[in-house]
Amino acid sequence: MPLKRTHTELQIRMIHSLDHAYEFDGLTKPERRKISALIVDLAGDLIHEDASLKPIYNKYSGSDFDREAAAQAAEMKSRLEAALGVDLGDDDDLHSQDDLLQRARAHLQQQAAKKAAAASKREARRAARQKSPKQLAAEAREEEEQAQISLSIREVYRKLASALHPDRETDPQERERKTRLMQRVNEAYDKSNLLQLLELQLELEHIDQRAINHLSEARLTHYNEMLKDQVRELDRQIHRAEMGFRHTYGVHPPGALSPDSVLPHLAANIEALRHSIRNTEQDLAAFDDLKQLRRMLKARTTFG
């Protein structure tokens, strides 16, 4: 990330240097056209980093960046509405493609939620008409198990809360420690995070092997069911984190992400950035000399 910031800052300097160089005496029309095209390419990609580049972009593009962005957003909006069958509205804040994609994603999620809710209601009505006494009894048992799981969480929470209640502590330092621990307990309880509550019990030495040995099979079953649910949620969170990482860094190897697969890719990206930074620094150093500038324009179609 520091390399990317450095690279961006150098490219912004490059735009200003090209803008200044455009006025050099002795440049030919083709050379000025090349400078103009380079400015438009660079500034168009970097305006989201530095809005002050808009006037320079407009100067050399013969257009207006905001109008172009609005036109592109309008075209994209029309295509999305036609493809997805949704109305994305006419809000004034839908000026960027990212805004449109987020709005479209939200509409799709709402539609999916509505369909799922409707399907669930239909299924519930159909199942209610068809349920046998055996099925009804199984549902009652499942509801009882869920109630027991919730009860298990409450029991662990009550034990921790009783042991950590800061108002009962006279020592200021110990009261502060218990206050911090109680905050962690409350956060875990609010999220129904049994695993975190049990970890806090272990951390505070409120669970010993004898207590574990005397846990009933029913209680162990309840604990395991809750922990399985949390494992599934953690798997979903890991998947979302991996997808975000792949998108940000352009990592697309097959299989799960691992240091062995990712680090070589990142190392190659880092080396490419360093190489680009060196090239851009060399280009910037040549801008004070017309001969070097002309030689550079002839040799390169892009900078950095």
From TrEMBL:
Biased composition (Low complexity): 107-119
CDD domains xrefs: DnaJ
Bilayer-crossing regions: none
Region annotation (Disordered) ranges: 106-143
Name of the protein: J domain-containing protein
Organism, scientific name: Ralstonia soli
Taxonomic lineage from the root: Bacteria, Pseudomonadati, Pseudomonadota, Betaproteobacteria, Burkholderiales
